[in-house]
Amino acid sequence: MTLNLSLSIDGQSRGTLAVQLRNAFRTQIEEGALRPGTRVPSSRQLAADLGVSRSVVVEAYEQLCAEGYLVSQHGSGTSVAAAARADVASALTPDDHTPAPAVCDLRTGSPHDSTFPRQDWIRAVSAVVTSAGRRELGYAPPSGLPVVRHTLAGYLGRVRGVRTRPERLMVTSGFAQGLALLCRVLRDRGHDTLGVEDPGHPGEWEFVAEAGLRPVGIPVDSDGIRVDALAASGVRAVLVTPASQFPTGVTLTARRRAQLVAWAKEVDGYVIEDDFDAALVAPAHRLPAVQSLAPDRVVYAGSASKVLTPALRLGWLAIPADLTAPVERIRASWDIGCSGLEQLAFARLIDTGAFDRHLRRLGADVQKRRQAVRDFVAGHLPDVTLLGANGGLQAYLLLPARCAEEAVVHAARRRSVLVRGGRFYALRPDDRPPALVLGYAGVRGPELGRGLAGIAAAYRETTGRA
Length: 466
Hints:
The chain is 41% helix and 15% strand. The protein is an alpha/beta fold. It has three domains: 17-80, Orthogonal Bundle (Arc Repressor Mutant, subunit A); 104-113 and 357-463, Aspartate Aminotransferase, domain 1 (Alpha-Beta Complex); 116-355, Aspartate Aminotransferase, domain 2 (3-Layer(aba) Sandwich). An eight-stranded mixed beta sheet has the order 5-12-11-10-9-6-7-8, with helices on both faces. The chain has a four-stranded antiparallel beta sheet with strand order 13-14-17-16, covered by helices on one side. A three-stranded antiparallel beta sheet has the order 1-3-2. Strand 7 (214-221) and strand 8 form a beta hairpin. The longest helix has 27 residues, at 354-380.
C-alpha cells in the first residue's frame, strides 16, 4: 500500500536526520495531526519520499515504537499507537466513553438515514463518473448545468405544476443559499421586512434577520397563512410553506392561494414558496405549487434535504423573469456553482425514474408513521387534537387549555423522550393554545412507539389522568 505523509526535514540542520524525523513525528502526533490508528508509510517508502537512507527512517521508527508513539505489527505495517495521545473531550460533544441513557429524539428534522436510496445513488454517481468528460469535470455554471436545469424544469412541471423554463432555474447549495440570495435581492429593491409564518421555523427567522431583513410574523390557522393579516402587516414579500405548513402541517387552501397571489400583485411584491416536503403529502390532498398560479410573482424553492439527504446540499429556485438577472448577478459574486457531478447524478436519478420510485417508497413510509401517530393520539391522548394530519414530517398536537405545555415537555424528557412545545416555534408571544410538535420521520418504528408511550405517560402525569 502506498501512503502519503506530510513531513519535512532540514539537511542543513545540526540535528541528525533520524532525530529530526523522530521529532517531526512526535509533534504531529501530540498536536493531533496524526490520529491514533493512522497508518504511516513503510520505512522504504518514506526514505524514498524524503530522499534519505532507509536506515534513518528505521532508526526513527524504532525509537518512536520504544517511546509508545508508534506500534509495528508483522504483516500490518506501522501505525500511530492507540494511546499515543490523550484527546481532550470537547465541551460541545459528550465523552464517547461515558455511558448515556437511551434517548428517543422526537424533535423535528429529516427522515431517517435508512431511507436514503444508497444503491440508486451509487449507480447514478457511477454512471455519471464513467461517462464524464472534460466539460462535466470542469467548473459548472453558477446557475447550474444546462442539462440539469432542463431535467429539473421538466420534472417540476410534471409533478408540481411549476411553470418555468430552464434559463429561469438556478441550482443552489440547499434552500439556505437560495433564501440568502432572495433576501439580498429584496434588500436591493428597498425591502426591509419579510413576512414569515407564525408558528414557523425559528432557524429561518434568524437566517432572514442575519441577511438584513426583519421577519414579521403572520398568523396561521387551519386554512394556512392568514392573508388578511398579511395585507395588514405592511410587508411586500412573504415566505410560506403552502403544501404542508411547518410545523402545523396544514395545507394552504385553494381560496387562500388565490388571495395570496392577488395580494402579491396588489402590493407589487413576491411570494417565496418553500416546497420542501410536498412529495410527502398524501397524494389525494396534494395541490399544485402556488407558483403555477403566478410565475411572475412567486419564487418556487425546493431542495433534496427532506426527500434525499441534507448532506447533498442541493436546492433549486424557479425565479420570476424580472428577478432572474439580479439573482444570477449576486450568485456569480458569491461562488462558482455547486458540484457538477452531484447535479448530474441527481438529474440521472430523475431521468431513470429512480427518484420517483424513491419518493413513492418514502411517501408510503411517512404515511405509515403518520397513521401510527394518528391512531396513538386517538387511543391514548384524550382531548388532544392532531392538526394537519395529511402531510408533513411532524405532527402538531393541540393540548387542552388546562395542560401546561412546558410541564409535558419536561416530563417527557425525564422519560428520555425529546420533544418540543408549540411555543418554541412561535415568533410572537401570545396566548395561543399549548401544543407539542412531534417529529416522527427521523426515528425507526420501534423507537417511535417507545417515544409515543413516553409522551402519553408525560401527558397523564401532567394532566392528572390515571
